[in-house]
Amino acid sequence: MDGFESCRTTVADIDELAVSMTRELTYYWSLGEARDRGTKLCLIYKIPQHIREVDRNAYEPMVQSFGPYHYGTPTLQAMEKEKWNCLDYILNLNREKRLRDYLKVMQRLENQVRSCYTEEIKMDKKKFRQMLLLDGCFILVSLYGTAGIVMPETEAYGQANNQEFVGGNGVGQKVPWPRHEGEAANQNSIAEHDADYADQIGRWYTNFVAHDLLLLENQIPFFVVERIYELVAGKDTENQRLTDKIAEYVEEILHYYPKAIQEFERPKDFHHLLHLGHMYFRPSQRMEEDSHRHARPRFFYRLLLHFGRSYSKLSHQPEENDQVFSLNDQTYCLQAAQQRWRRAAQYIEAGVEFKKREFNKQSPHSLLDIRFTKKVLEIPCLPIDENTSSLFRNFVALEQTCPQFGNDVTAYIVFMSQLTNMPDDVMLLAQRGIIVHELRSDEEVSTLFTKLSKDVVFDFNGKHYLKSVWQMMEAHYQSRLNRWIAWLRHNHFSNPWLALGAFAAVIVLSCTALQTLISVFSYVYPPTDE
After folding, report:
1. Neighbour count for residue 86 (Cβ, 10 Å)
2. Which end of the chain is more exposed for a tag (fewer CB within 10 A), N or C?
C-alpha cells in the first residue's frame, strides 16, 4: 500500500512539473512570436556582473529608472513623482483621450516590449503597463516631444493648471511642466523653461537625468513613446516632429562632441535613446571613402616587388639581398598577424605629426572621423570629464551586445587606449589640443582608456573603420627612412640655430671635399706649359 501511495505521489509530482514547464514554454514561445512579428526589435541586455564591477556607476541610474531592470530601486523612488506630473500633463494635453485609452495601447504593446529585454521580466501585467506609460510620458514631456501641440484653451483647464493632483504614490504634487498655448511652444520658450526648471529642482538633477537617459539597462523601446504621442497628437500627425525634438535634446546632451549629422538629416528611425546617441558618433561615409582611397599598404607593394623579382629571373643565382628581403617579408607578415596600435610617442619618433582636426560647419565630422594623409594624423578634439567613462562604456556595451550596430566606437576606444598607453602620450595629445580633460592628471586619462578597453572583444584582423588608417600608419612606422629622417629632425633640426649650424657644417664639408678633389685632380693631371 505504501508503494502504491509513493507511486501516486511521484506521478503527481511529474504531472505538476510538466504543467509548470509547459507554462514556461508557452511564455517563452509567446516572446519569440512577438520578436518574429517585430522585424526591427532591438534587444536590451543587462551588463554582466564582472564588467559591472569595474565601474558600477557607469551602468546604473542615479535618479531615474526607465524600464524594468531598475524598477522599484529604493534610491530612485524620490523622483518617481516627476513621472506622474508628466502623465497628468499628457492627460490634460488631449481631453478627448482618457487614461483608459493609453492603458489599452500599453496592453497591446506589452508582449512586444517584454520580448525586447533579454532578462525575464517578473513584473505582473498591471505594474508593467503602468511602468511603460509613466516612463513613456516622462520621456515624451521632459525631452520636449510635445512641443508644438496646441493646448486646449478652457477655463476649467486654466484652473486645473494650478491645482494639485494625487500621484501614484499618494503625494499631492504641482505640475511643473510648461503650459504653452498654441504654437508658443517654440525653442525659446523651451530653453527658458529648461533654465527655470533646472533652477527649481537643482542642476544636479538635470545632469543626472541626462546621465540616466543614456544607459543601456535604463531604456524602453522608443515605439512606446511614439504610440503615446500618436494618441496625444492624433494618428494623422507625422512622427517627424517628435523625433526631431527628441534628437535635438540628445544633441544638447552631446553638445561637447563634434557631430557629422546636421539639423536637416537628424535620425528618424532609432530603437531607444542610447541608440540615437550612438548614431551621432558614427564616422561619416565620406571619411571612410577617403581613407580607402589613400590606403597604400606597404606590404602589398613589397609582395608585388618580391614576386616580380622571383618570376623575372634576372639572375639565376639567388642573391643575398633577395634572401634578406624574403626574411623581412616574413617578419612583416608576423607583425601583421599581431596587429595593434602603437603609442603616440612611438609614432612621433617615426615622423608622424599629430594634429587636431578643426571642425568645419560646411563639412562637419563626428568624433570618430580620424584621417591620415601625408604623414599627418588628424584626430577630432576629445573632451573628457566625469561623464565620459559612462557614455563610452554604454556605447561599447551596445555594440558588444547588438552586432547590427557595428563596432565603430569599440574600434575608437581600442585605438585611443593603445595610443594613450602612458601618461606621456596623453600629454603629447593634450599639447596639440586633441585631448582636453578635466581630470586630475594625465595618468588618470590613460587609466580611463585602459579600463574602457578591458574585457572588450575586438578583432583587429576583422572589419573595422580604422583598418586602412592603421595599415598606412604601420607602413610609415616600419620605414627606416622615415624614422631616420624623424631622428635627424628631432635631434639636429629641432631649433633654427641647430639647423643653421648643421647647414654651415655641410657647406664647409662640401667645400673641403671639393678642394681636395681639385688638388688630387691637379696632381694627377698637372698643367703643362706649351
Report:
1. 24
2. C
Cα(343)–Cα(418) distance, integer angstroms = 6
Please determine, for residue 201, whether its predicted confidence score (pLDDT) is greater than 80. Answer: no
How far is the C-alpha of 52 from the C-alpha of 64, rounded, in Å?
Answer: 19
Q: Are 217 and 67 in contact (CB under 8 A)?
A: yes
Helix (H, G, I), strand (E, B) or coil at 166: strand
Please state, in angstroms and rounded to a whole number, the distance separating the CA atoms of residues 177 and 172. 15
Q: How far apart are CA 469 and CA 199, in angstroms?
A: 46
Task: Quick: pLDDT tens for 210-231.
Answer: 999 999 999 999 999 999 999 9
Give buried/exposed letters for 365-378 (b at 16+ CB in 10 A, else e): bbbbbbbbeebebb
Residue at grid coordinates 582611397: 293
Long-range CB contacts for residues 486-493, cutoff 8 Å, separation at least 24: 486/348, 486/349, 486/350, 486/351, 487/349, 489/351, 490/349
C-alpha cell at position 447: 587609466
Residue the block writes with cell 580611463:
448
Give the end-to-end CA distance of the chain in Å, rounded to a whole number.
Answer: 147
CA distance 274 to 281: 11
Which CA distances in Å does 103 have to 107, 114, 125, 231?
6, 16, 11, 11
The structural domains of the chain, with segments of one domain joined by +, span 1-37, 49-275, 285-482, 495-530
With a threshold of 0.85, does the pTM exceed it? no
